[in-house]
Amino acid sequence: MRGHRPAILATAMVLGGCRYGPDDFSRAVRTDPETDLAWEAPPAPDAEGEPLYQMLYRDEFGAAARPAGQRARMLAWIRWMELKQDHLEGLAGLVVAVAHVRRTQADDRAGVASVEHEHLTPVYGALITALAASATPNPADLSKWSTALAEGHSAVGAGGNPHQREQARVDTVLSLVSEWMNTLDPYQMRRVSDARFFLRRRLGPLVNPGHYGWVVGSHWDAGDFDTLRYLRTEDQPPHMDLGGLWRSEAYRIEPAAHLRVQQAQVILAVAVSEPGLAQAIEVLRGTRAPLDFEPRE
């Protein structure tokens, strides 16, 4: 598992959106139906448990029973992982560490938003006013607004590039996740991505890839028409599919061969940010009663 950092960064770049290469337009356009979005729930560990597993996987429609349902699903996942006490302690520490990164992210974004509002909103206001008046902008106005926006963006980045800070946080999260995963044996490693069992709402078949954009550093470009033409074919092995994103990239990189570890890392990064996981770990560590859902400092 160690030594995969270049692959992690490559994966982040792949997930950032489709980009064209010199041979992209030489490919023949396929006209056969390719909009298959069929998706099945992950199977239970054994046949006897399948009915209960699928009933748990159905999730809850409202919010009242969801904490209890999530705890049951989280405990089932952790038990399925067969984590030892030191693994649980490491996972608890990972939850705390990633939460700290997320708080840093929220604070940074709030600060950037304030500066953007100060420097960009007035320019947008002038542009909106002109367009609302049906005025045809003259070249001088176009140049003025372009310059003003460029100056505004420069002011926003005066304290450092916010995109670079975001990428640094992504690297930190993936490094933390990788460090914990390196403590697992191959049996446990194969079960990390089963965390989607309690991430049904986050990692469902029609999920917006932006939901996990914070993990990979950028958002998938939903307007890229390549995703309408290149989907998974039947002869490719099944794999975790986030709203068709993996399938749309499958023609470039074989997921089963190159992305399995990185997929698991992204899924785990989302999982450790899910409310309730820290409490579920406390239950198994014996520091919280099984049915105690009260928040703690």
Structural summary, described in words:
The protein is an all-alpha fold. The chain has a domain at 5-10 and 43-114 and 161-285. 55% of the residues lie in helices and 0% in strands. The protein is built from 13 helices and no strands. The longest helix has 48 residues, at 85-132. The protein is elongated and about 70 Å long. Mean pLDDT is 75; it is low at 1-27, 29-39, 218-240 and 248-259.
Quaternary organization: single chain
Give the helix proportion (percent range).
40-55%
Question: Would you report the number of β strands?
Answer: 0
Number of helices: 13
Gross geometry: elongated
Report the portion of residues in β strands: under 5%
**Alpha-beta content class:** mainly alpha
From the N-terminal CA to the C-terminal CA, the straight-line distance is: 35 Å
Q: What is the average per-residue confidence, as pLDDT, rounded to a whole number?
A: 75
C-alpha Rg (nearest Å)? 23 Å
What characterizes the major β-sheet?
A: none
Pattern of helices and strands: HHHHHHHHHHHHH
The residue ranges in which pLDDT falls below 50 over 5 or more consecutive positions are 1-27, 29-39, 218-240, 248-259
